[in-house]
Design brief:
Strand content: under 5%
Number of helices: 29
Radius of gyration: 31 Å
Domain AP-5 complex subunit zeta-1 ARM repeats: 30-154
Domain AP-5 complex subunit zeta-1 C-terminal TPR: 280-519
Structural class: mainly alpha
Strand order of the largest sheet: 1-2
Organism: Sesamum alatum
Shape: elongated
Protein name: AP-5 complex subunit zeta-1
Distance between the termini: 65 Å
Mean pLDDT: 80
InterPro entries: AP5Z1_ARM, ARM-type_fold, TPR_AP5Z1_C
Length: 568
C-alpha cells in the first residue's frame, strides 16, 4: 500500500510538473514520461475505485488535454497517443467527475486525427480505442462516428490492409440514418480517395502533421488546383504548348469542388460527384495505365469487402425508406466506377445482388422507383455496364410483376418502356441482318449483347402481361412482331413464339410465367395452375416438356417437383 501511494504521488507530480516546465508547457506531448504517467494513473484509478483519487487526477488531465489541442498546429510531436489515453480516462470516469466526453471526442477527431490519420501508430491506436469503446460510444454518442466517417475512410485508405480487420470491427458504428446514404458512394470511391491522398502527398509533402482541411482553406491552394486539374478538368491554364509546366505544379482555375468533397473529414450529406465527365474518365484511365501503387491495390481489394459489410448491415438494420432511397444511387453508380476490370466486376456483382435482393424482399420498390428504372432502361445502349443493368432491371420487372398486382398504373408505364426498348432493339437488329456474316469481333459482341437484351425484354413483357392480364392484348401484338421478325438470332423470335403459345393456355402460362405464390382467386379461376411453393409436395405425371425444350409428344417419364425444387 505504501509503495502504491508513492507511485501515485510520483505520477501525479509528473502531471503537475509538465505544466510548470517551460520546455513542455506549450507542447505537453513532447514530455516522454507523460504518456506513461497518464496510463498508470488511469490503471490505479480503476484498481482503487476511489472517487477522491479520480477527482484529484481529472483537473490535471483536463488541462493537459486543452494545452495539447491548443498547441497541436505548432507541435512537432505526435499528440495522438496521449490524447487517446486522456480520452479513455474521460470515458471511464466521466460520470464521476461530471465530464461530458462528447466535445473532447469531437475535438480529437477535428484537431488531432485529421492531422495524424496517416501515422500508422496513431491510426492503429485510434481503431483500438474505438473498437474497445464501441458499445459505450454508440450508446452515449450515437452521432459521433457517423459524423466522422469520411475521416475514418481516409484513415483506412491510407493505412491499408494491415488495419482492415480492426476497421471492420468499428465499421458498423459508422452507419446511422444520417450517414447510410452518403457512406455508399464514399465506399465505392475508396480507390479514388487513395489517388487524391497520394496526389496531396506528392504535392505538399507528408500527410502526417498537416491538416488537409487547412490546405483546402489555404489562400494559395496550388496543390488542390493541380489535383482537380489532373483528376477532373483535364486541362490547365498553361495548356498551349511546350511552355506548359508539369502536372504537379501548373496552377489552374478553381471551377469545381469535387475533390474537396472526397478529402473532407466530416459527413455533410450526399454531395454530387461528376464522375461522368469525359475529362475525369480520361484522368482515371491515366492512373490505371501507370503502375498502381501498393496502397491503391490494397484499396481496390478492400472496397468490395467493405461493401459486403455495408450491405449486410443494410439488410438487417436499415428501414425500407433508406433502402428504397439507396437503390437509385446504386443504379447511377453501377457504370461509374474506378476503371479497374477486377474491381468493377467485384463491385458491380455486389451492387446487383443487393438491388435484386431488395426487390425480392420488397417488390413494391419497383413501382415506387419506376422513374429511375425507366431512365436506366433508356440508357441500355450506352455501354456494356448499362446494358447489363438494364437486363437485370428487365428481369426484376417481369419477375415481380412491376411491383405486384396492386400497382397497375406503374406496371402499365413499365410495360410501355419495355415495348419501346423492344421496338428500338428490333429495328436496329433488322438493320444489321444483312451484314451478319461480315461483322467484326466487337460488332459480333454487340449483336450478342443486343440479342440477350431482347430475350430479357421479351420475357419481361410476357411475365408482366401474365401478372396484369389487361396488358395481354398489347403483349400478344409485341410478341407477334418479334416472332415474325426472323432476326439473325433465332433464340429471340423462337422465345417469342413459345410465349405466344403459352398465352393460349392460361393455367400453364400462370404456372410458368406467373407468381410463385398465386392467389386463391387465380387458382379457382384457372384450374390446373401450379402453386410452386407447394411443388415439393406434389407428384406431377404430365408436365408439357415442349414448353421447356421445344419437344412434342408425351413426356418420357414421370418425376416429382422435388427433383427440381430444393427442400426448405
Amino acid at each position: 500500500m505504501v509503495d502504491r501511494d508513492k507511485e501515485w504521488e510520483f505520477h501525479l507530480r509528473s502531471l503537475s510538473s509538465t505544466g510548470r516546465d517551460s520546455n513542455y508547457a506549450t507542447d505537453p506531448a513532447s514530455d516522454p514520461s507523460l504518456l506513461n504517467s497518464v496510463k498508470r494513473l488511469h490503471e490505479l484509478c480503476k484498481t482503487e475505485k476511489s472517487e477522491e483519487l479520480i477527482a484529484r487526477v481529472y483537473p490535471h488531465l483536463n488541462k493537459i488535454f486543452q494545452r495539447c489541442v491548443a498547441s497541436i498546429s505548432q507541435s512537432r510531436t505526435s499528440n495522438g497517443l496521449l490524447l487517446l489515453a486522456i480520452l479513455q480516462f474521460f470515458l471511464d470516469f466521466g460520470d464521476v467527475v461530471l465530464h461530458d466526453a462528447d466535445p473532447s471526442l469531437r475535438t480529437f477527431f477535428r484537431s488531432c486525427l485529421s492531422r495524424e490519420f496517416a501515422d500508422p501508430v496513431v491510426a492503429e491506436a485510434s481503431l483500438e480505442f474505438l473498437s474497445s469503446n464501441k458499445g459505450k460510444l454508440l450508446k452515449s454518442f450515437p452521432t459521433l462516428l457517423p459524423q466522422f466517417f469520411p475521416l475514418m475512410l481516409k484513415l483506412i485508405a491510407w493505412n491499408g490492409e494491415k488495419l482492415e480487420n480492426l476497421f471492420l470491427r468499428v465499421f458498423s458504428g459508422l452507419i446511422s440514418p444520417g450517414s447510410f446514404i452518403p457512406l455508399f458512394p464514399s465506399l465505392v470511391d475508396l480507390p479514388i480517395l487513395v489517388v487524391a491522398l497520394e496526389k496531396v502527398e506528392r504535392s505538399s509533402g507528408s500527410l502526417v502533421g498537416s491538416s488537409i482541411a487547412s490546405i483546402q482553406k489555404s489562400a494559395a491552394p496550388e496543390m488542390l488546383l493541380a489535383l482537380m486539374d489532373e483528376a477532373y478538368t483535364g486541362s490547365t491554364i498553361g495548356d498551349g504548348g511546350a511552355d506548359s509546366e508539369s502536372e504537379d505544379s501548373t496552377p489552374i482555375a478553381v471551377a469545381d469542388p469535387l475533390f474537396l468533397d472526397i478529402l473532407k473529414d466530416e459527413n455533410d450529406g450526399l454531395a454530387e460527384r461528376h464522375w461522368t465527365s469525359p475529362a475525369m474518365a480520361t484522368a482515371l484511365q491515366a492512373v490505371i495505365n501507370a503502375p498502381l501503387s501498393k496502397r491503391l491495390k490494397e484499396a481496390l481489394n478492400m472496397a468490395p469487402k467493405l461493401l459486403d459489410s455495408y450491405f449486410t448491415l443494410a439488410v438487417h438494420d436499415a428501414n425500407d425508406s433508406l433502402i428504397c432511397a439507396l437503390i437509385p444511387l446504386i443504379m447511377a453508380r453501377y457504370s461509374t466506377l474506378f476503371p479497374d476490370k477486377i474491381f468493377s466486376y467485384e463491385v458491380q456483382k455486389r451492387l446487383l445482388e443487393f438491388m435484386l435482393a431488395a426487390f425480392h424482399r420488397s417488390p413494391h420498390f419497383i413501382a415506387l422507383l419506376k422513374k429511375p428504372i425507366v431512365d436506366r432502361l433508356g440508357e441500355a445502349y450506352d455501354n456494356s455496364a448499362k446494358t447489363e443493368l438494364a437486363l437485370q432491371l428487365c428481369w426484376a420487372i417481369g419477375e415481380y410483376g412491376g411491383g405486384g398486382g396492386s400497382h397497375k398504373d406503374a406496371a402499365r408505364e413499365l410495360f410501355e418502356s419495355l415495348e419501346l426498348l423492344l421496338y428500338e432493339n428490333l429495328s436496329s437488329s433488322r438493320l444489321g441482318l444483312g451484314k451478319a456474316a461480315h461483322v467484326s469481333g466487337s460488332s459480333s459482341f454487340r449483336k450478342s449483347s443486343q440479342s440477350r437484351l431482347l430475350c430479357f425484354v421479351v420475357t419481361a413483357i410476357a411475365k408482366l402481361a401474365t401478372y396484369h392480364r389487361e396488358l395481354l392484348p398489347r403483349a400478344r401484338v409485341s410478341l407477334a412482331k418479334v416472332a415474325r421478325s426472323r432476326i439473325s438470332d433465332a433464340r429471340v423470335w423462337k422465345r417469342a413464339q413459345d410465349y405466344l403459345g403459352l398465352m393460349s393456355e392460361p393455367a400453364i402460362c400462370l404456372s410458368v410465367l406467373g407468381p410463385s405464390n398465386p392467389s386463391t382467386e387465380v387458382m379457382q379461376k384457372y384450374p390446373g395452375t401450379v402453386n410452386w411453393s407447394e411443388g415439393h409436395k406434389k407428384m406431377i405425371a404430365h408436365v408439357p416438356f415442349y414448353i421447356l425444350g421445344g419437344q412434342e409428344g408425351p413426356p418420357s417419364h414421370d418425376f416429382s417437383f422435388l427433383d427440381i425444387l430444393p427442400r426448405e
